[in-house]
C-alpha cells in the first residue's frame, strides 16, 4: 500500500476497533472504517473494507451458530440484490471525490436515523426494503449496517449478532462478486486487505474477554461518535 507508517498504524487501529465492535454489537466495522479508509487511501474503499468485514462476520456466525433468523435474513438478501446492482453502478460512475462525499453522507444519514428512535415494524416488506438500502449502501460505500440495525433492533444479543452476521457475510460476497464483474476489484485493495487482516484478527480475539464487560448502549454511542468524526473530517477534506 502507498501509505506512510503512521497512516498504516491508523488503519490497523481502525480495523481492530471496528472488528471488536462488529463482534460485540453486530455491526460497526464498515461505519467506522469506510471514512478513515477514504481519507488515507481511497483506492481501498469499498473493496478492502468489504473483505475484512466478511471475514469478521464469518467468525461471529461460527460463534453464534444456530441462532440466526434465517427466514428474515433470506428476505433481506432478496432485497439486497437490486441494491447491490445500484451500488455497483455508483462505484463505476462516480469520481473518487464524489464517492468519498457519498460515503460520508451515508454514514451521517445512518447515524441520524439510528439516533432518531424510529422503530419500524419487522414485516416482510420492511425487511426487503432495508435489505435493498443496505445493498446499495454496502456495495458503494461498505456501510450497510444502519438499515439492518434499524429493522432488526428488536432482536437481542446472540440472535441479533448471528442474524446480522449471516446477512452481511452473504451480502458482502454478493457485493464483491458484482464489483469484480464490473472490474473495480484491483490488486491494491486485495493486498491492503491482506496486510490489515491481522488487525481484524486482533479485534476479534480482544472481543471475547471484553464483550461481557461492554455496556451495549455506551458502545453504540462510542461507535457513532467515531463514525461521525471520520465522516466529518472526510467532508472537510474534500473542500480544502
From TrEMBL:
Membrane topology: Multi-pass membrane protein
Residue ranges of the TM segments: 9-37, 43-62, 74-93, 99-119, 188-207, 219-239
Origin superkingdom: Bacteria
Leader sequence segment: none
Family the entry assigns: Belongs to the 4-toluene sulfonate uptake permease (TSUP) (TC 2.A.102) family.
PANTHER family: MEMBRANE TRANSPORTER PROTEIN, TRANSMEMBRANE PROTEIN YFCA
Protein's recorded name: Probable membrane transporter protein
Organism this protein belongs to: Streptomyces atroolivaceus
Amino acid at each position: 500500500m502507498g501509505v506512510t507508517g503512521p497512516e498504516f498504524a491508523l488503519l490497523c487501529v481502525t480495523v481492530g476497533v471496528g472488528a471488536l465492535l462488529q463482534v460485540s454489537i453486530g455491526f460497526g466495522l464498515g461505519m467506522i472504517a469506510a471514512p478513515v479508509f477514504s481519507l488515507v487511501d481511497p483506492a481501498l474503499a469499498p473493496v478492502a473494507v468489504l473483505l475484512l468485514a466478511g471475514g469478521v462476520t464469518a467468525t461471529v456466525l461460527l460463534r453464534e451458530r444456530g441462532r440466526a433468523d434465517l427466514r428474515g435474513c433470506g428476505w433481506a438478501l432478496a432485497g439486497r440484490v437490486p441494491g447491490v446492482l445500484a451500488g455497483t453502478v455508483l462505484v463505476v460512475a462516480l469520481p473518487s471525490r464524489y464517492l468519498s462525499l457519498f460515503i460520508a453522507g451515508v454514514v451521517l444519514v445512518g447515524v441520524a436515523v439510528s439516533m432518531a428512535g424510529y422503530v419500524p415494524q419487522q414485516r416482510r416488506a420492511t425487511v426487503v426494503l432495508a435489505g435493498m438500502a443496505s445493498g446499495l449502501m454496502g456495495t458503494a460505500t461498505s456501510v450497510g449496517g444502519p438499515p439492518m440495525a434499524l429493522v432488526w433492533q428488536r432482536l437481542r444479543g446472540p440472535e441479533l449478532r448471528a442474524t446480522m452476521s449471516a446477512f452481511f457475510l452473504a451480502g458482502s460476497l454478493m457485493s464483491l462478486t458484482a464489483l469484480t464483474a464490473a472490474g473495480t476489484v484491483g490488486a491494491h485493495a486485495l493486498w491492503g486487505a491482506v496486510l490489515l487482516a491481522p488487525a481484524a484478527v486482533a479485534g476479534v480475539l480482544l472481543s471475547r474477554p471484553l464483550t461481557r464487560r461492554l455496556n451495549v448502549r455506551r458502545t453504540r454511542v462510542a461507535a457513532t461518535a467515531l463514525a461521525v468524526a471520520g465522516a466529518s473530517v472526510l467532508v472537510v477534506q474534500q473542500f480544502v
